[in-house]
């Protein structure tokens, strides 16, 4: 794994934070996928994926997030994604991931989103 691509997983009181750093692209994220897959799911937690330090993401990176979300879906917990960079936000729109997941601009906003029962995307995971 490139030292520029990292994953940092922290368990908080009511959610698990998963922060990525670097480029989430084909050929660069195999170890990140393994670490993400190894997370033991806690049915009492929501999940916040922090993309604030991601510089690029391609279909492989989006696929990694979608596969994790399918795993989380079994626990009936929510995922919110923090995206602050406009370029990354545009990539989420192009990929239509912003129609599947709530996109937050801060950790506080993401916390509120995973607690809300009312948010539902334009697309479900199975439709995506």
Fold topology:
Layout (H helix, E strand, L loop, with lengths): L5 E6 L3 E10 L5 H8 L8 E12 L1 H15 L5 E4 L3 H10 L7 E2 L2 H9 L13
Parallel strand pairs: 2-3, 3-4, 4-5
Antiparallel strand pairs: 1-2
Keywords:
5 strands; Transcription Regulator spoIIAA; 128 residues; five-stranded mixed sheet; globular; alpha/beta
Describe the structure.
With 128 residues, the protein is α/β, with parallel strands linked by helices. It has four helices and five strands. The protein has helices at 30-37, 59-73, 86-95, 107-115; strands at 6-11, 15-24, 46-57, 79-82, 103-104. The longest helix has 15 residues, at 59-73.
Tally of helical segments: 4
Q: Order of strands across the biggest sheet?
A: 1-2-3-4-5
Shape: globular
> How many structural domains?
1
Spatial extent as radius of gyration: 13 Å
User: What structural category arises from helix and sheet content?
Assistant: alpha/beta
Extended strand count: 5
Sequence stretches where pLDDT stays below 50 over 5 or more residues = none
Q: What is the strand content?
A: 25-35%
CATH topology: Transcription Regulator spoIIAA
Entry summary:
With 128 residues, this protein is an alpha/beta fold. The protein contains four helices and five strands, in the order ββαβαβαβα. The longest helix is centred in the middle third of the chain and has 15 residues, at 59-73.
């Amino acid at each position: 794994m490139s030292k520029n691509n990292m994953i940092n997983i922290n368990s908080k009181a009511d959610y698990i934070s998963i922060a990525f750093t670097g480029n989430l692209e084909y050929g660069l994220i195999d170890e990140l996928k393994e670490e993400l897959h190894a997370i033991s799911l806690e049915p009492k937690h929501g999940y916040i994926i922090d993309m604030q330090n991601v510089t690029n993401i391609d279909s492989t990176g989006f696929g990694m997030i979608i596969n994790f979300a399918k795993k989380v879906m079994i626990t009936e917990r929510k995922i919110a994604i923090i995206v602050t960079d406009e370029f990354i936000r545009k990539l989420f729109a192009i990929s239509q991931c912003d129609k599947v997941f709530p996109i937050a601009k801060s950790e506080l906003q993401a916390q509120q989103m995973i607690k809300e029962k009312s948010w539902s995307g334009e697309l479900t995971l199975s439709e995506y």
